[in-house]
Every structure is written in C-alpha cells, then in structure tokens.
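Page 47, continued from p. 46.
Same chain as before, 155 aa.
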Amino acid sequence: MMSSGSESYGSGDPVHSPENYKDMSPSIAVSESLVGIDEVQKSLNRSRASVYRYTNTDSRNINPPFNPRKLNPEFRSDQKDPLLFHPNEVARFAKDILRIKEVTVEVLNSPSTATQQVLLSILEELRVVRSHLESLGESPASLSVRRDRKDRSAA
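Result:
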C-alpha cells in the first residue's frame, strides 16, 4: 500500500493515467504492493459485500478481461489466491463509477520487507567489494589488462 518512488504505467491510456487521480479522496496509497479487500472496503467506505459486488470476477475465468464498469483485480495464478487491487484501479473505480469527487492517492514510504533487507545486505556486500577493489589501487585500465591475459587457467 506504500511506495518510495515513481511507477511506470504501460497502458498509454490518458483517461486512466495516474495524473487524473492525484486529486481524489478515499485515502488510497500508490504502491509497489497491492491492496486487499479490507483496504478497498475502508478506502471506499463501503461494505465488504458491496466491494465483492463491484469486483470483476467470474467463477469460470480466474482472470476475466478488463471491465471499465467494475473494480478489476490484479492477475491471479490460482482461484484460491486473494483478490488484490492496484491502488490506481481503486481510485479509477471510485472516481469513474462511484462518482466520488474527492479521491486522494497518497505516496507513502513502505516498511522494510524481507526482500528489501536481503537487497540492502547485497548492496552492502557490493560496497565492501568495491571498497576492497579501490584499495588495491589499480585503475580500470590495468584491470582490463589483467582480464585479457591469456596465461590464466580456466575456473
């Protein structure tokens, strides 16, 4: 539900671009992560049953085609997967279908996840390696000479 950066949208559809939803208000956060039914329910101030009625689902098709009159969930790989929604889709639905005039899309910093922690530790290791290489005092040109040597044995 939160993000620390910008996102790119590939649809190219100016009607559904995020700029059209930046001044809107049930509070929905733009994010790398998706929002579940509970967050949608709270942000739209609707009952859980209403949110399910609004949702574009089909018992015969796990991923039905986009329906502009419905709230479209993200791709699911299994029928048992929970329904998740992109915050901009919820904002679009609130503005275009429910006619909520003020919908706010907020950009918030997300809490650290296990993946982010692993990436940060990899980054730290790379910095240590870089620091070590820089302490050897060799220029990149001499590293390329070293790489091009023919007398090395194969690893």
